[in-house]
Write a structure and sequence with these properties.
The protein is mainly alpha-helical and about 150 residues long. About 65% of the residues lie in helices and about 0% in strands. It is rod-shaped, with a radius of gyration of 29 Å.
């Protein structure tokens, strides 16, 4: 049985058999190119998970941000159907970059403070101590004394 405007006799939707509709038809019958938006979301999440490890989440975050922008542009041109996923990818990627930058800055600040407050002396003392456990413990005790830390 044919419905008005459906010369192919498909009673379940449009002339292409798509009963759900809502998708823009792709030019020349191509499939939607949703990979960039999805990859952006995945990389953004990975970046958020990795930001706690010395800020290395900044790398997937930057790549995810670029792919998210590509995915949003594809969706705007009608080449992709997942604009929301691409936007979520951009948001998670930006958060990953910001969080990674903060963690990296804190790591550098703490490392610098350690190094400047006796860390360099401790490292040199431990290297000179070699495998001698008593000498290593003496190095640690001197370091703690310099910092005013008591370990019981």
């Amino acid at each position: 049985m044919s419905t008005p405007g459906n010369e192919y006799g498909n009673q379940y939707g449009n002339e292409h058999g798509n009963q759900y509709g809502g998708y823009q038809e792709q030019p020349y019958g191509g499939q939607p190119r949703n990979g960039a938006g999805l990859a952006s979301l995945i990389l953004g999440i990975v970046g958020l998970l990795l930001c706690w490890f010395l800020g290395i989440g900044i790398i997937p975050g930057i790549i995810g941000l670029i792919l998210g922008i590509v995915g949003m542009k594809r969706a705007k041109r009608g080449l992709a159907t997942n604009r929301g996923v691409a936007i979520a990818g951009v948001v998670t990627s930006v958060l990953a970059v910001i969080a990674s930058a903060i963690v990296l800055a804190i790591t550098i600040a703490v490392g610098t403070a350690f190094w400047n407050n006796g860390g360099a002396d401790l490292t040199e003392c431990l290297q000179n101590a070699g495998d001698d456990l008593a000498a290593q413990q003496q190095c640690q005790q001197e370091f703690n004394d310099n910092l005013g830390v008591t370990v019981e």
